[in-house]
Backbone:
């Protein structure tokens, strides 16, 4: 047993980079996939719409912890080779991000009136140009507040990687707590760091929403 | 891949699923009580109480549920409040669910235009009658989808209670895994069970919603 010292403080902050890395990886791979899911959900083809809806429904109906374990133990089974834990965890967070962001962005896309697409078509724009220049900018504005809100969920969700042994913030907290026998101080500090990360995003999301409301 | 060794453990799986359901329902009910009380306080006149509720909401919505469970389980004993795992998880999840419920219920109440309340008062309805007949029905309808989807998220979130050794479904998974060494198969089955429970609740809530909110919709 030793007392809580500067080194513990530093190790918590050092672990923060893994929390950030997981968030960045999840967004890097999850966001393009989310866009694909959202576009699939509003596609002309009913079968594509149903397939995308089913994917989203499945991922949203399983605990994030379950997804993590499923891919952590499942990747070697699917691929026949051992993969680094980071790959498995990234796959799980990517799918989680894709499902939730995909649904949020679909809402944004659907909120833009059908007539806007038709107006674009009347101007001779291709389907991609209609999306790129007319629909996407409006949909982006509408879906930005919930997107930032989801970012908070994702940051909090990375704490689950600790359960698979990733030494990110939550895990570092467990380690420090076990070493110093100071759970109160340690977990309060860990919670405070998460709070300091998430609160600005929450406030930003809220101000975006308020601004959006005023412009109607 | 071999799922056969898991077959013997079906009773444990059922027991785990029952504990998961209990934990979910208890936390949801306690959380809703917190939510209603918080929403009333937010709309009330006592400024300090409003700030207290605001602080509670932000604190619990901006920190991970896992850390909250750890704090209740590992830290509260320092203050002489030693809760068993299930109770600790229930307390933490209730507070977490409550923080979201306050906002949902407040938004539901705020969605009723002031003019409707005034219209009710003009008709000579009492304060309680205005609340019961004018505010409550549409507020319930507006809050219903958000509450139910939060409920499903809570159901999935109870899996975190496994980390303080609550005997719920995800913890049962760890037990079966340690007996069979069939890690992938165990977690595939566990995911399927959560999926089945989540979908059942979604279907149930959709049916209840259709039956309960049948009067004409705006639009």
Residues:
């Amino acid at each position: 047993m030793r007392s809580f010292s500067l080194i513990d403080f530093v190790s918590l902050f050092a672990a923060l980079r893994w929390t950030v890395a997981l968030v960045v990886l999840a967004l890097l791979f999850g966001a393009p996939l989310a866009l694909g899911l959202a576009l699939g959900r509003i596609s002309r083809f009913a079968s594509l719409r149903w397939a995308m809806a089913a994917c989203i429904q499945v991922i949203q109906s399983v605990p994030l912890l379950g997804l993590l374990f499923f891919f952590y133990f499942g990747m070697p089974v699917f691929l026949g080779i051992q993969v680094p834990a980071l790959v498995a965890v990234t796959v799980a967070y990517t799918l989680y991000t894709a499902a939730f962001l995909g649904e949020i962005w679909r809402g944004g896309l659907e909120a833009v009136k059908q007539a806007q697409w038709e107006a674009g078509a009347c101007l001779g724009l291709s389907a991609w140009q209609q999306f790129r220049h007319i629909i996407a900018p409006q949909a982006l504005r509408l879906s930005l507040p919930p997107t930032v809100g989801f970012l908070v969920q994702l940051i909090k969700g990375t704490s689950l990687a600790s359960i698979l042994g990733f030494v990110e913030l939550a895990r570092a907290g467990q380690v420090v707590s076990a070493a110093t026998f100071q759970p109160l101080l340690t977990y309060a500090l860990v919670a405070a760091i998460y709070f300091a990360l998430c609160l600005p995003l929450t406030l930003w999301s809220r101000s975006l929403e308020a601004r959006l409301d005023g412009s109607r | 891949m071999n799922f056969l060794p898991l077959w013997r453990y079906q009773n444990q799986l059922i027991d785990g699923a029952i504990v998961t359901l209990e934990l979910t329902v208890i936390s949801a009910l306690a959380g809703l009580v917190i939510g209603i009380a918080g929403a009333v306080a937010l709309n009330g006149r006592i400024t300090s109480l409003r700030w207290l509720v605001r602080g509670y909401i932000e604190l619990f919505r901006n920190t991970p549920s896992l850390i909250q469970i750890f704090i209740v389980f590992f830290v509260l004993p320092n203050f002489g409040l030693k809760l068993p795992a299930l109770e600790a998880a229930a307390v933490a999840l209730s507070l977490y669910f409550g923080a979201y419920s306050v906002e949902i219920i407040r938004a539901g109440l705020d969605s009723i235009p002031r003019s409707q309340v005034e219209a009710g008062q003009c008709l000579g309805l009492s304060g309680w009658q205005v609340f019961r007949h004018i505010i409550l029905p549409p507020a319930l309808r507006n809050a219903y989808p958000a509450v139910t989807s939060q409920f499903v998220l809570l159901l999935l979130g109870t899996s975190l209670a496994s980390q303080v050794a609550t005997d719920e479904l995800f913890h049962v998974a760890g037990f079966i895994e340690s007996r069979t060494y069939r890690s992938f198969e165990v977690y595939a089955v566990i995911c399927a069970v959560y999926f089945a429970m989540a979908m059942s609740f979604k279907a149930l809530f959709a049916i209840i919603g259709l039956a309960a909110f049948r009067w004409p919709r705006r639009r």
Summary: The interface with chain A takes residues 1, 58-59, 61-68, 70-71, 74-75, 78, 152, 156-157, 159-160, 162-163, 170, 173, 183-184, 187-188, 190-191, 194-195, 198-199, 202 of chain B (CB under 8 Å). The helical segments of chain B are 10-43, 47-61, 65-75, 85-110, 114-122, 127-157, 169-180, 183-212.
